[in-house]
Design goal:
CATH class of the largest domain: Mainly Alpha
Distance between the termini: 33 Å
CATH topology of the largest domain: Clc chloride channel
Number of domains: 2
Structural class: mainly alpha
Mean pLDDT: 88
CATH superfamily of the largest domain: Clc chloride channel
CATH architecture of the largest domain: Orthogonal Bundle
Number of helices: 24
């Protein structure tokens, strides 16, 4: 090797590259916090615009008048002719889906989840127009859906579009997508906290300041827009609730468990109906029209099933309907909504789930009055608990369900019973089915959806606890011929794949691999220093194993010399990929021991585990 090459090697050896110290809040987070309120305000405007468009189409289709007032189609005087209105709406939606974008099909949230999981949070810009338009047509012509699903989908499309225009990272784009979705829900129901929780549980798949704060700011902006245009009244006005007794809480837990079973059955019914449509010998463009036929027939027989039905939810919880009417509405709404949704039209699931859940709760309270002591079950409370429990069991968004029921009614007394019933429904639903109504379609397409958010085990472990302290080093002036003879001898330490190179003063000059040392193009007379190719990548003893793993990937190496922050050029250990696996092994062993319920001895502590690995390497 020439003197010039040797000088370059010396310069390379004089530098070290340590891992990046992670920061919770960065300038990029500040940028998202500026963009999120803008997206939230725009999502609030979209929610208001879509609501008025639905009102306009409803008035035109069922009452023959031009008005944007949000009205129910249940008071129409069309008679049997009402059957044709949802059919016509379904036909238009089918045409829009085939010639516009197939992405408008479905109820919004699962599609947004799939974009997060499979497409780096990229949503086609055309959905920003086609999704709310198709949903307004489907709902405005009597579709038994909620407006919140399409609004959430449109808000997420807006956030994704902003992220695509600004060329942010996929993680940042996911945050903007979730911000738009949460803002849409907040603007629809006036429920900002539950909207943030829904984004965390169904879209973000994480809980950290970098994503939580922008989403929260977006919902605040959306709520500000809603309050200035709609007001601050709760979405569902109900009478004051009665403080529950201990016996009542137990009854609400049982009610939630039953609702959890029903939630799983409802989810399966929707996808079973979708499978039946898949077997039809006609193009899927015509399916929404067939679904509209079922909607029309049911709507003719039970007019309250037509349209969004927010008034139905309020009437059921408030006790404005008799038991027979509630039972009929619950069954008819389930039939109409499940067939329509299974046909692939555009519309939301939350409002129908709330209607069905509230109806089950009110019906259960009426039945329980005959068997339970007087006053055990409050009909209003039972309907509210079951409504939230249905949401929790079907969507698996427990915290969002509990807070949603509180925010939309502003009844703090209901929080404890709602938590009791929703938790029971959540547990039962998970026990019966691994997938929810939101994730079943994604799972069928072969995509795994996270079921929980655990802390990163590697982020909790320090490098110094797992690093091997007995480090085999090479001297920079040692001839390669002598090193090659040593490697061929099979002596202790020769099986390592990489070796730190340190001078007489212990200063780290670089890291060489077996491939570097055995390179036939380098003469035996050359020194170890001559095969150092780049500055050494190191990790600090107080860094986490997660930082070490990330640094290995970033530097494309399988081992890192360990140094201290006070002496960054002195090697005190070495951490390898095998050490990272050993850390995971201890975590799995502890988990298995707890699950098995036996007193099996844990694997050795980090230092002992490192010594065992060293001994295994020497034996090899």
């Amino acid at each position: 090797m020439t003197d010039g090459d040797g000088g370059e090697a010396a310069r390379v050896a004089g530098r070290v590259r340590g891992p990046r110290r992670g920061r919770v809040v960065t300038r990029r987070v500040a940028l998202l916090c500026v963009l999120a309120p803008i997206i939230g305000t725009a999502a609030g405007a979209i929610a208001l615009g879509l609501t008025r468009l639905i009102g306009l189409l409803t008035n035109l289709a069922f009452y023959g008048r031009a008005s944007t007032d949000f009205v129910t189609p249940s008071h129409n005087a069309l008679g049997p002719l009402v059957i044709g209105v949802p059919v016509l709406g379904g036909l238009v939606v089918g045409i829009l889906a085939r010639y516009g974008s197939e992405g408008i099909r479905g109820h919004g949230i699962p599609e947004a989840m799939e974009r997060v999981l499979s497409y780096r949070s990229r949503i086609p810009p055309r959905l920003l127009v086609l999704k709310p338009l198709s949903a307004a047509i489907a709902i405005g012509t009597g579709g038994p859906f909620g407006a919140e699903g399409p609004i959430i989908a449109t808000g997420s499309a807006l956030g994704s579009l902003v992220g695509q225009v600004l060329h942010v990272t996929a993680t940042e784009r996911k945050t903007l997508l979730a911000a738009g979705a949460a803002a849409g829900m907040a603007a629809t129901f006036g429920s900002p906290v539950s909207a943030v929780l829904l984004a965390v549980e169904l879209l973000l798949f994480e809980y950290r300041p970098a994503s939580l704060v922008p989403v929260s700011l977006a919902t605040v902006a959306a709520m500000g827009f809603r309050m200035s245009h709609v007001g601050t009244a709760p979405a569902f006005a109900i009478p004051a609730l009665v403080q529950p007794t201990g016996a009542a809480l137990a009854a609400y837990v049982l009610l939630g468990a039953v609702v959890g079973i029903v939630a799983v059955l409802v989810s399966r019914a929707v996808y079973d109906i979708e499978d039946l449509f898949e077997r039809l010998p006609i193009h899927w463009m015509w399916w929404p029209a067939l679904g509209g036929l079922a909607v029309g027939v049911v709507g003719w027989l039970v007019p309250r099933t037509l349209g969004v039905g927010y008034d139905n939810i309020e009437d059921v919880i408030a006790g404005s309907l008799d038991a027979r009417t509630i039972a009929l509405l619950t069954v008819a709404k389930l039939a109409s909504w499940s067939i329509a949704l299974g046909s692939g039209t555009s519309g939301g699931t939350l409002a129908p789930l709330f209607t069905i859940g509230a109806g089950l709760g009110a019906t259960a309270a009426a039945a329980g009055a005959r068997w339970l002591p007087a006053g055990t079950l409050d009909p209003h409370m039972a309907a509210l608990v079951a409504m939230a429990a249905m949401f929790a069991g079907a969507s698996r968004a427990l915290l969002a369900s509990v807070v949603f029921a509180f925010e939309t009614t502003q009844q703090p007394i209901g929080l404890l019973p709602i938590l009791a019933g929703s938790s029971a429904a959540y547990l039962v639903a998970w026990s019966l089915s691994p997938h929810s109504i939101m994730t079943e379609k994604i799972a069928r397409r072969g995509r795994r959806v996270p079921a929980g958010y655990d802390s990163d085990y590697l982020d909790l472990q320090l490098v110094g606890e797992w690093a091997s302290k007995a480090v085999v080093t090479l001297h920079p002036d040692e001839p390669l011929g002598r090193v090659r003879t040593w490697l061929a001898s099979g002596a202790a330490g020769t099986s390592h794949q990489g070796f730190p190179v340190t001078g007489a003063d212990g200063r780290l000059e670089g890291v060489v691999t077996r491939r570097d040392l055995l390179d036939p193009h380098t003469a035996d007379a050359a020194g170890v220093r001559d095969v150092i190719k780049r500055p050494p990548a190191v990790v600090h003893d107080d860094s986490s194993l997660r930082e070490a793993a990330d640094h290995m990937v970033r530097e494309n190496v399988g081992r890192l010399p360990v140094v201290t922050r006070t002496a960054p050029h002195v090697v005190v250990g070495i951490i390898t990929r095998s050490d990272l696996l050993a850390a995971h092994g201890r975590r799995l062993d502890e988990h298995h021991r707890l699950e098995a319920g036996i007193g099996r001895r844990l694997r050795p502590r980090p230092a002992a585990a490192a010594r065992q690995l060293d001994r295994a390497r020497r034996r090899a």
